[in-house]
Amino acid sequence: MIIHQWVPAAHRGDAVGDNALVMRGILRGWGHDSELFALSIDESLTGDVLPWVDTEARRADITIFHYAIPSPMTQAFGTLPGARVLHYHNVTPAHFFAPFDAGLCRLASLGRQEVETLVDRTDLALGVSEYNRRELDDMGFPRTDVLPIVVDTDRLRNAKPVPALEVLLKDGLANILFVGRIAPNKKIEDHIRLAEHFKRYVDTQYRFIFVGNDQAVPRYTAAIQALIAEYKMLPDRFWFTGPVPVDELAAYYRHAHAYVSLSEHEGFCVPLVEAMAMDVPVLAYGAAAVPETLGGAGVCFTPKDLEVAAEWLGALVYDQPLREQILEGQRQRVTAFGHDRLEPRLQSLLSELM
User: In whole angstroms, how far apart are CA 253 and each of 115, 279, 295?
Assistant: First the structure.
């Protein structure tokens, strides 16, 4: 059986592309002929991921299309002769980008419109979460289900030490970690406000670390820096690292005292699973798919009261009995995203199409 995957962009460290690579390994392990095709490919993935213009991309018995952004792939996918499986990773609503980038606002709006063109051209539409599946239902897809993202946490657990970085992270400050793009839906400004509450009411010995692309929305990043200046906070207490290699990412997780997510839109949120796998207690605002991904683990709070969040954050950092209780719950939850749980799910879904 030939089961190929399409993804608009294959970038190392990107949740969509990484998930597709893990899924390809699973499919090959089952004996299927399986390749991953992309429009944009990182240089480090050249030869491993194949260009979408390759005619072989259109010759599969089943094609799995990972959708997160509009692209020429969408229309072509709807015309394929084999079975078509849409794996929907969600599209950030356009209103988040409107104040900062008209181009990204339009792209997000087009992304929402474009996925709906596949309603009557897809044999099976899968959401990476129940939250996403409900969106597919609302769009009118007749046959929907859930297939969570396969998260490769072993790459973090087995990462090599980074001594120079780890010395810096062990200077006595509480390391509060966030991983992901610096984008408006992530509400990084609320992290800055949380830091102000933490400084006032909990402890002045803190450091907020943001690991991920900080140039995706430059005007938004500038607004975050302006807020730090407005609060007259110490700039060196806020690290914006940009994208980092996996060994450095693992080091940040290993030395984090807590992981914080204040995002207001997530279709799944892979870093929550990574944090749980790396034994970092999670504090998260319960928006969109976040409560579903946490599944009762971590500390998931609503409404967004940042004074209360600062108290919770202090408890996770300094209250050892509570911290251990939270970590134990997370260790149980993270098993839900292991290969042994997700492979049978993928096999069951594909067997219906075979």
Answer: 34, 8, 21
Q: Which of 32, 329, 313, 288 is nearest to 185 (CA)?
A: 288
With H, G, I as helix, E, B as strand and everything else as coil, classify residue 123.
Answer: coil
Structure tokens at 229: 């200046």
* Amino acid, single-letter form, for residue 210: F
Return the bridge partners of 261, or none.
284
Comparing CA positions, the residue from 313, 339, 340 lying closest to residue 326 is: 313
DSSP 184-247: GGG-HHHHHHHHHHHHHHT-S-EEEEEEB-S-SSHHHHHHHHHHHHHTT--GGGEEEEES--HH
- Cα–Cα distances (Å) from 265 to 96, 109, 150, 290, 323, in that order, read 9, 15, 20, 8, 26
d(C-alpha 216, C-alpha 251), whole Å: 24
Distance of alpha carbon 10 from alpha carbon 315, whole angstroms: 39
Each residue of 132-153: pLDDT tens digit?
999 999 999 999 999 999 888 9
Distance CA 350, CA 153 (A): 24
Residue 340 has pLDDT above 90, yes or no: no
In the chain, the amino acid numbered 44 is S
Token output for 8: 């608009």
Instruction: Quick: pLDDT tens for 271-330.
Output: 999 999 999 999 999 999 999 999 999 999 999 999 999 999 999 999 999 999 999 999
User: According to the model, what pLDDT value does residue 14 have?
Assistant: 83
pLDDT (tens digit per residue) in 201-217: 999 999 999 999 999 99
CB 334 within 8 A of CB 276: yes
Exposed / middle / buried, residue 189 (Cβ in 10 Å: 0-12, 13-18, 19+): middle
**What's the rounded Cα separation, in Å, for the pair 19 and 25?**
10
CA atoms lying within 13 Å on the CB side of residue 56: 13
- pTM (predicted TM-score): 0.95
